[in-house]
Amino acid sequence: MTRILYLFIVLAVVMLTLRSKRSIFQWINGVLVLLARFLSIFPVLRERFASAQALFNLPPPPNKTCLWLYFNSIIKYSIISARIYIVMVAIGIDFSYWHIFFGTPMIQIILLLGVTFGGIGASDAGWFFFLFSFGVDKNDIGNFLILERILSLGALSFVTFSSYLYYRAQVAYGTVRDGQTP
Hints:
8 helices, mainly alpha
């Protein structure tokens, strides 16, 4: 049953991509324009989003760029899925990598429609529903969500701290002045 679902998802992506040249990017562009128009009703944001209509009138990106973005998104979801799979194996949740690979973009889309600032809780709710619908125990889902959040924040903290140390080393060696980007 899940293979049929995957087949339909792949066919839907291919059909959307082939329906018209760069249709997915045009749709995303249209969503951005609608969002910018909505935000421009507020006086504080009006100047910032005044050129929203110009976004829609831009020529679509070339095919090579579209394919490159598509390839990079597959790589991105492969890496995210591998991280999530490792967390699930560490907790003891028996789940297929392909379930995670095809489920991760669905969970990531929830963040586009986030109703909270920064999508707080939206991704967690999506993972809870996704895993619960496959029969994973609620306690295991809770453990997964906590460990995933710790690893995500830990990785972000590590990269931020490493960047800070690199910047301070550049200041110490005199390569850049304090307050200047390296």
